[in-house]
Amino acid sequence: MTWRAAALLAVGALTLPAWPAPFVGVAVMTGVVLLLCALDFGLAAPLRGLTAERDGDRSVRLGETATVTVQLHNASGRTLHAQIRDAWVPSAGAQPDVPPDRVVHVPAGDVAALPSRLTPTRRGDRPAVALTVRSLGPLGLAFRQRTGRPPTPPWTLRVLPRFDSRRHLPEKLSRLRVIDGTQVGQGRGAGTEFDTLHEYVPGDDVRSIDWRASARRAEVLVRTWRPERDRRLVCVLDTGRTSAVLLGDEPRLDASIDAALLLTALAARAGDRVDVLAADAVSRASIGGAERPAQWPRLAHALAPLQPALVETDFQLIAGELLRRHRPRSLVVLLTSLEPGALGSGLLPVLPRLAARHRVLVAAAQDPVLTALTSTPPRHPRDAYNAAAAWRTLAERDRLTAALARYDVAVVDVPAPRLAPALADTYLRLKATGRL
Amino acid sequence: MSAPRVRRRRHRILIPVLLSALVVITTLVTHAIDQPNQTDAGFLSPLSTGDDGGSRLAAGLAERGVQVRRETDTLAALRAARSGPATLFVPAPQLLHPQTVDDLNLLPGHTRLVLVDPPRRVLDAAGMPLRPAGRRWAARAVAPHLTGPCALPEVTGATAAVARQRYAPTGPPGSVDLCYSAGLARLPGAAENVVVGASDPFRNGRIGEWDNELFATALLATTGRVLWLDLDGPAPPPPTPSTVRTTPPSEPDGGPYDEPDDDQGDPGAGDSTETTPAAPPGGNASGSGGPGREQTSNPLWSAFPPWFWALLAQLVLAALLIAVARARRFGPPTPEPLPVTVPAAETVFGRARLYHQAKAHQSAAEVLRAAAKDRLGRRLHLPADTPDVAAVVAAETGEHPDTVRDLLHGDAPDTDQELLELAKDLDRTARDPRPSPVRPPLPRSEGDPR
């Protein structure tokens, strides 16, 4: 039954003054309208003969637009006049090309393509929820509609992180090439890994003369070094309660993911092996062996659906995982927050074992509110109390940093937008000085 | 801390507004209760002894030897007025039926008609050259000759609460005499009409005040006979002209029935015989309208043609169809779990509020001073164990060493204001005079292990 049936009845009501017996007229007209509705319902294309399929984009970067198309195949013997609603979750930002209130006509045996443009507003998996087909009769008085007919074709659009820090990548890569010594012609680069022997020419570092090799040959030979390759790097993402804190308009986890993506892109280009582990009370994601740049998209896919959980992070679990799975010495980058409560009781007890095997780097995105509280002059007694609380938090953080430094743990603590480049710089510095 | 303050500020505005609203409403309600309505049961009835009744007035008239006759039907009262000089007292003109108001003009000479606070429609229908001109909040007691000589010699000297509704003449000058600062209007003619703007002088509750009783009895006693029209509700329509003409011969024998006083009240008995041709007994005015209507079905049905009702029914059916059409939703709603987020610096603000509520001036000052010393030490590159930071700072900034020492090591502040002053001074002293690209909380140990 549609509004047209009601409109027909209402228009018919205007003829009532002309009827000799008005109440008989009401009964007759109502009966006729109901009969027409029944007829229309019978003539509507049956839903049983419809099948729906989807194709289109499987993933999209946050802020860009993807297109997913529903192919509606009309296998029934009649022409389909239908309104179609393809419902996605609200954060998928679906904008159907054919609005749900427009009637689509599909001849028998034909296929209708119904594209939807999706501009998601959040990272993660955005599923399609329901496809509803309302098959109208030829008069448009009645329709057939039934849940699950045709069955909704499942589809999930994976929304990748925006990865704003990719604009830093060319600059960091060029610095990496300088360290590698492949681009700038200052001879072979610095490093600790033996590369080749070559004949001494004036200007070479005399400390690099390989006396043993020189003794075997007539000329003086010099060793050249290059940065280590095939090092191991483990990125640990803390998805516990501290990662849910909003820094600006993004949770801390998004800043951590951004930094991890830049670091892994850089490290994969530098020839290091990167593993990524995300955990809070349980392990959320574990991606191993992103060695080649081609594998980097796989990592972005795996990190996209991570969401903060309101639980305390189990550093015991993380340390156990790191010690069990990563036997050789690696650089462990802990992307977490410098919160004395969470790290003091969680990380510090397991840190000695971890630091004995691996080199540990703690990277944390700073809360910009703290900076604002401590740097603006107070105007109200409340501001003074806020400043006192902020300074106290910073002092506790300093104490934590000092405690971490005792275990030879490096700390990167910068405001959220600068976390990714700062972490990349730290990585490059460690690589250049051969301390990986 | 801010939420209760906002609430208190809101109270500061809300409480006076609510109080004044309460006062206004109380006044209005009290006034509405205090001012009786002409349609109230027992309003100015000679039988009613309540505050709004007229039993004291009836008794006062009887004391003066005036014959009081209570009438409950307009036509009967008009007929009774023809039998000799009389005063027709209508305390509730609002209840008069519009068709009978015209008949008030037909009163014979030597008759006085007293209307109490008649509405405009009655004035217009009775053809009186008067219009209402301003109404007071409550009746005011005034002297009769306040605005000019009064044409009613019998009320001379009686200061009464008459001035509530004021009147203005609409006809030629001289057609209306106004007394009591226009609260009372006298229209001379064959039958003298008197319009009184307030019911207060006649009511039991007010008749004892001022000279109200004198005024009321004097006004009504001039003819020696008072026909008191006591209507219990809106008067029924008068009978059709043919019946009116046929009734007068039949009624005089059954009609006159004196009710000299209110204590022998048997209102229905006398009237029932007179009014049978027109309508059922008038003892109960509202009841008299009922039985006549109930004989047929609701007249609303016949007021419109049948197709109108059919059209209405069909439109209702159409609305029902719209409801049916809208009831089926187009697919289910789409739920979505939202990601958890925690507001930025939640714990910092929480701690700050704790400090504030506990008035922890001392702790806050200690933290601020320690932070300032730390910042100064970093800015001036002082070793961690510098004995006298204040002296170095004073040398740097040019302030007196004792001032700086007092700032860095002085007494704890006692009030919020002192703490604010301290925080401002510390911030000014510790702030780097040169604008620095690095914000005060420096990125600590970026990269290199300590």
TrEMBL record, chain A:
Pfam families: DUF58. Keywords: Lipoprotein. Residues 199-368 form the DUF58 domain. It comes from Micromonospora gifhornensis. It comes from the Bacteria. The keyword Lipoprotein applies. InterPro entries: DUF58 (IPR002881). This is Lipoprotein.
TrEMBL record, chain B:
Coiled coil: none annotated. Residues 230-298, 424-450 are annotated as: Disordered. InterPro entries: DUF4350. Pfam families: DUF4350. Residues 424-434 have a biased composition (Basic and acidic residues). Residues 256-265 have a biased composition (Acidic residues). The keyword Repeat does not apply. The keyword Membrane applies. It comes from Micromonospora gifhornensis. Keywords: Membrane, Transmembrane, Transmembrane helix. It comes from the Bacteria. Residues 47-220 form the DUF4350 domain. Residues 242-255, 269-283 have a biased composition (Low complexity). This is DUF4350 domain-containing protein. The chain crosses the membrane at residues 307-325.
